[in-house]
């Protein structure tokens, strides 16, 4: 019973950013029937996929997560800095001055 309560509490948490993104902008996005949460600052980005993904879907999900970064942030991703998988990824971005 205690395990069930803990599971319900954790499930209610939703997408929580890494500590470096506590003061970042948050954008919730839906693409291809999936939900994502994007946290970003002027230099870093984190994308979190919400929900379950079946085997064989992860490559497409990862590509969608990468495509969301410039769309949501308006910044260019430094792909060499990208870390993570189809559940959560972080990287560096370069934003236009202005």
Automatic annotation (TrEMBL):
Residues 1-17 form the signal peptide. It comes from the Bacteria. Keywords: Signal. This is DUF4907 domain-containing protein.
């Amino acid at each position: 019973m205690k395990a069930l309560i803990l599971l319900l509490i954790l499930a209610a948490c939703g997408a929580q950013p890494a500590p470096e993104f506590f003061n970042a902008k948050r954008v919730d996005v839906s693409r291809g029937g999936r939900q994502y949460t994007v946290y970003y600052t002027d230099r870093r980005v984190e994308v979190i996929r919400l929900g379950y993904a079946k085997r064989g879907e992860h490559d497409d999900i990862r590509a969608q997560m990468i495509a969301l970064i410039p769309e949501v942030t308006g910044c260019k991703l430094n792909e060499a800095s990208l870390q993570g998988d189809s559940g959560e990824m972080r990287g560096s971005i370069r934003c236009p001055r202005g």
